[in-house]
From TrEMBL:
Species whose genome carries this gene: Astyanax mexicanus (Blind cave fish)
Keyword list, A-Z: Disulfide bond, Glycoprotein, Glycosyltransferase, Golgi apparatus, Membrane, Signal-anchor, Transferase, Transmembrane, Transmembrane helix
Catalysed transformations (reactions): a 3-O-[N-acetyl-alpha-neuraminyl-(2->3)-beta-D-galactosyl-(1->3)-N-acetyl-alpha-D-galactosaminyl]-L-threonyl-[protein] + CMP-N-acetyl-beta-neuraminate = a 3-O-{alpha-Neu5Ac-(2->3)-beta-D-Gal-(1->3)-[alpha-Neu5Ac-(2->6)]-alpha-D-GalNAc}-L-threonyl-[protein] + CMP + H(+); a beta-D-galactosyl-(1->3)-N-acetyl-alpha-D-galactosaminyl derivative + CMP-N-acetyl-beta-neuraminate = a beta-D-galactosyl-(1->3)-[N-acetyl-alpha-neuraminyl-(2->6)]-N-acetyl-alpha-D-galactosaminyl derivative + CMP + H(+); a 3-O-[N-acetyl-alpha-D-galactosaminyl]-L-threonyl-[protein] + CMP-N-acetyl-beta-neuraminate = a 3-O-[N-acetyl-alpha-neuraminosyl-(2->6)-N-acetyl-alpha-D-galactosaminyl]-L-threonyl-[protein] + CMP + H(+)
Chief place where the protein resides: Golgi
Localization (cell): Golgi apparatus membrane
Record GO terms (molecular function): alpha-N-acetylgalactosaminide alpha-2,6-sialyltransferase activity
EC identifiers of the protein: 2.4.3.3
InterPro entries according to UniProt: Glyco_trans_29, GT29-like_sf, Sialyl_trans
Disulfide bridge map: 129-296
Keyword Disulfide bond appears in the UniProt entry: yes
Protein name: alpha-N-acetylgalactosaminide alpha-2,6-sialyltransferase
Leader sequence residues: none
Length: 358
């Protein structure tokens, strides 16, 4: 029979709940179940007088969980956790996935040696971070020196630096990606000079586990052995994409709870109520910005979409004016409003400017 009461349909022989799919998924449980999360260590030392954690903004304080579990790693995934997370579609959970396949990948991820992604440097009281997206608003901005002056610099996707240092700087402390964005960016943006992902000494890589291919990629990356399920078009090994800087001790995978928490508490979209609800997720840039909000005291955002995005190219490294492309799996209008609100509430400083590109 078709299972409609999710929590009453276990496969007892395996100890794994009835396999939920996008087709048979019916929300019959208490809606609050979607907000069940696990917690980790608190970030930051609390001595920064300007820290966003000390904001008096009621909406932010109500939504923000400073000790949310942020990273996924070995020995976390057991049957109980699997049954909880299998209620949520990717990247917010493991709906339609196979327990053995996912667990075998997760158990290869090393537990971080330190609880804090970005340590506070000596003689500094605040962790100041620049999060640099790839929006055309940065073309001609001359923000490079300002960006590089931060304690840490985050970048994501096709972060073209060579030839654009004056506008976007040249430092990268944290590079955020999915397996698809990592590989596709190196192909699609090579013509703009993106020949390698940022590979600064000591750089930290953070993966967003967007889909099943990310866990296949993880097995190749962390096993250092060719698996029978490799589905990449080229024979290049996973670690070779990191420009010689890959180190398991500096590699992090974001936890599905953290990604779902961002969506549920900050980025709920009307798209979740439509036919294609399972497709919606925040952009990689959005996930990166919220990662920074949880590991930094002060966050400045550059290259993010703004209300006047039509005045600029899609990307800062495009010499000719192009239109910003809105993909169906993201809610760009929501992000435009959210970045402006966070800026107005003094939780971030969003780079904005008038004018445009010719």
């Amino acid at each position: 029979r078709k299972c409609t009461k999710i929590l009453e349909c276990p496969i007892k022989t395996l100890g794994i709940l009835y396999s939920l799919t996008f087709i048979n998924f019916i929300i019959t449980m208490n809606p609050s179940y979607n907000h069940v999360l696990i917690f980790g260590m608190r970030c930051c030392n609390g001595v920064c007088a300007e820290s966003l954690r000390k904001s008096k903004n009621e909406d932010f304080q109500k939504a923000f969980i400073p000790n949310i579990k942020m990273y996924l790693y070995q020995n976390q995934l057991n049957l109980s956790e699997w049954n909880r997370l299998s209620h949520f579609n990717n990247p917010f959970g493991f709906m339609e996935y196979n327990y053995t396949d996912i667990k075998s990948a997760v158990d290869l991820i090393q537990k971080p040696n330190i609880t804090q992604l970005l340590p506070l440097p000596a003689n500094e009281s605040c962790i100041r971070c620049a999060v640099v997206a790839n929006g055309g608003i940065l073309n001609g901005s001359k923000m490079g020196k300002e960006i590089d002056s931060h304690t840490y610099v985050f970048r994501m996707n096709g972060a073209v630096i060579e030839g654009h240092e004056e506008d976007v700087g040249n430092r990268t402390s944290v590079y955020v990606h999915t397996s698809f964005s990592l590989i596709a960016s190196l192909i699609a943006y090579r013509k703009y000079g993106f020949k390698n992902v940022p590979n600064d000494e000591g750089i930290k890589f953070v993966m967003i586990p967007e889909g099943l291919r990310d866990f296949i990629f993880l097995k190749d990356l962390l096993n250092r052995k060719a698996g029978p399920d490799r589905d990449f078009k080229k024979k290049k090994r996973a670690w070779a994409y990191y420009g010689g800087q890959f180190d398991e001790s500096r590699f992090y995978v974001l936890h599905p709870d953290f990604l779902r928490y961002i969506r549920n508490r900050f980025m709920t979209s009307k798209q979740q109520n439509g036919t294609y609800w399972a497709m919606y997720r925040p952009t990689n840039g959005a996930f990166t910005l919220f990662l920074a909000l949880h590991v930094c005291d002060i966050v400045d955002a550059y290259g993010f979409i703004t209300e006047n995005h039509k005045s600029f190219s899609n990307y800062y490294y495009e010499n000719k004016k192009t239109e910003v492309v809105f993909f169906i799996n993201h809610d760009y209008n929501l992000e435009i409003k959210l970045w402006k609100k966070l800026h107005d509430d003094k939780l971030i400083r969003l780079y904005q400017r008038e004018g445009g590109q010719t």
